[in-house]
């Protein structure tokens, strides 16, 4: 059973998640953070950045692994997850770019990219704290419904719903990639501590299914119930169907 914390808004959630990360880094300066993209974790990164600045903290030894990446857009594209992680996480927190990994979504070498990413996570000793958002389809990372509960990093096809939801980051839906490479549900479950965040009514069904529904691959977020240390931080709207 995950620990559920209901807070007023995304800012309050970001503060809590940032505190958990800072406690970890205080005891392990080279902690391995699992970072997520999307709108949801932004308040966490912003809260972290504020404290880093106010207290002049040095996070340069912190290591990072992103959950996923698009396949089929250049890594320099402003919406590639490499670009997003650089802009939202690495630069504002003063992380060391070479210590922050994003799956390789380039078409050349894509058949080995999953195994290489798994090996890199293993070599780092595993993820200490994994930040997660959840999609309206119930996806975590880009593990859409139907993903094996034991899956590892691999390429996947994005659902139409997820492409529609992510079209806001692109000029048009036609520009949203159709494929991605994502850590698997099995990869995510290996992290030491999962912190899942969700805000707004649009996430209420996915949150209820993840927290209280059956553990099933048709609701990928439900795997958090298999984890010994999962924290779910939601606002009232996202908690409304619990
Ligand atoms: C995206 C990401 C996920 C994210 C989810 C929710 O497509 N691949 O890692 O958690 O969808 O996105 P948002 O936080 O913008 O609602």
Number of domains: 1
What is the CATH topology descriptor? Rossmann fold
* Ions and ligands: 2-amino-2-deoxy-6-O-phosphono-alpha-D-glucopyranose
Q: Termini distance?
A: 13 Å
Structural class: alpha/beta
Measured on Cα atoms, how large is the radius of gyration? 16 Å
- CATH C-level class is Alpha Beta
Percent strand? 15-25%
Order of adjacent strands in the largest pleated sheet: 1-10-9-6-2-3-5
Q: Biggest sheet, open or closed, and with what strands and sense? A: 7 strands, parallel
Gross geometry: globular
Unreliable residue runs: none
Named at the architecture level, the CATH assignment is: 3-Layer(aba) Sandwich
Please tally the helical runs, counting DSSP H or I stretches of 4 or more residues. 7
Strand and helix order: EHEHEEHEHEEHEHEHE
Residue share in helix = 25-40%
Keywords: Allosteric enzyme, Carbohydrate metabolism, Hydrolase
Pathway: Amino-sugar metabolism; N-acetylneuraminate degradation; D-fructose 6-phosphate from N-acetylneuraminate: step 5/5
Protein name: Glucosamine-6-phosphate deaminase
Catalytic activity: alpha-D-glucosamine 6-phosphate + H2O = beta-D-fructose 6-phosphate + NH4(+)
């Amino acid at each position: 059973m995950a620990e559920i914390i209901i807070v007023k808004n995304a800012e309050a959630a970001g503060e809590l998640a940032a505190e958990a990360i800072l406690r970890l880094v205080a005891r392990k300066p080279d902690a391995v953070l699992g970072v997520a993209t999307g709108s949801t974790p932004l308040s966490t990164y912003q809260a972290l950045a504020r404290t880093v600045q106010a207290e002049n903290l040095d996070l340069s030894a912190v290591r990072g692994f992103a959950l996923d990446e698009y396949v089929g857009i250049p890594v320099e594209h402003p919406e590639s997850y490499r670009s997003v992680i650089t802009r939202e996480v690495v630069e504002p927190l003063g992380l060391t770019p070479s210590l922050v990994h994003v799956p390789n979504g380039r078409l050349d070498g894509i058949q080995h990219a999953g195994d290489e990413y798994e090996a890199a996570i293993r070599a780092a000793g595993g993820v200490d704290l994994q930040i997660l958002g959840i999609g309206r389809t119930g996806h975590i990372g880009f593990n859409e419904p139907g993903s094996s509960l034991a899956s590892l990093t691999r390429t996947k096809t994005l659902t139409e719903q997820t492409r529609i939801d992510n079209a806001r980051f692109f000029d048009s839906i036609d520009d949203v990639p159709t494929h991605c490479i994502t850590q698997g549900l099995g990869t995510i479950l290996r992290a030491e501590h999962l912190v899942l965040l969700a805000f707004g009514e649009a996430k209420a069904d996915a949150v209820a299914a993840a927290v209280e529904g059956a553990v099933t691959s048709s609701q990928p977020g439900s795997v958090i119930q298999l984890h010994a240390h999962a924290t779910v931080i939601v606002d009232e709207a996202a908690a409304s169907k619990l």
